[in-house]
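Quick one: structure tokens for this chain, please?
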Amino acid sequence: MRVHLKYGEEGLDLEFPETANFVGVLYPEEAQVLPAPAEAVDQALARPIDCQPLEKLARGKRDAVIVISDITRPVPNALLLPIIIRHLEAAGIPREKITILIATGIHRPNEGAELERLVGREIAGNYRVINHFSKNEEEMALVGTIGDGVPALVNRHYLAADLKILTGFIEPHMWAGFSGGRKSILPGISSVRTLEFMHGPEMVAHPRTRYGILEGNPFHEAGLLIMEQAGADFIVNVTLDTGKKITGVFAGHPVRAHQAGVEFLSRHCIRTLDAPLDFVVTTNAGAPLDCNLYQTAKGISGVAGATRDGGVILIATECLEGFGSEEYRAVFEHATTPQAFIEKLMKKEFFLPDQWCAQETYQVMLKKEIWVHTGGIDAETLKRFHFKPVPRINEAIAQLLERFGQDARWAIVPDGPLLILKVD
């Protein structure tokens, strides 16, 4: 049998045998693509959820900020931004008073040709577009506290704006439950000092900071609190199919419009199995998400809940940027073993930016093996950090069937974390 895996821009064709207990090639249940997405966005701004129309909200405002996701997220910014801006300018906010703020979180800035790809050449050349730098303390301001008195520090450009608009897309998220909404602020435009709490070892280890969970999720609750403290007037969130085409537009009240999007998406992106898998073949959803090992924690975590202890997760992830940053590469130097790494984290023997995704990865590795097919990190480095490198996936599947037997229970998830597996 054949299947096309999401891998980089081109994808990866895989041949595999269909054995007796092969659960199947598992895809999200695709929602219908909107036939006229620009018109749908325009209508959503004019008839939003539990909120005044955007143009009416904007009347009398001196300026506006629009927060957008960075290049690692497949948000259709080039479609959304011109429509949002048209409503703002129709309300009387001039071009020079509109700022587009890229919610980089702790990621690198998006500049030059990359910026043009992100927002479109017209907007890049005619509007003020700035990156968030989480380590620039002079660009942050205190809005309150979260957790046990942790300072909530948010980008000053955002706080100074008279009208605050958040954009993004809703997908399953391994800690927040679902992305979108409040996540544009935390971690999107918050200080690294605040992110140290949000991505701290206790938060990542919490049993409710998991894919598909909002109720009782401390990550979600902290995000709602900081959004309330910093303020947000309007959101424009979309849902996407596996081809990154728009299936829904959810605009309006920052909390209730996001909830509506989550309820819609939940019907399509979560699959419950009746028993765990011996092994699973998955991806990190292809470009842009499989750009590095840091992001690859998402694909690993997305199937971990349905893989039995002692089982194997085989993930195909291109990782053209390698680990993602030198800081993330340095985190792995502490991983003499997965167990030792987790113990050091919980004892707070060190704190390094980006350690949270390594923690998520090694929490999974404590109970399951992680095999990696990639062209971006060499085999010796993968082995050094306790991954099993996989040069050829076909051969790896044969090895796994030999190990677990021809009656092994296994599945293939071509779209990675766009589908979340659970066991009933």
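The two ends are 28 Å apart (CA to CA).
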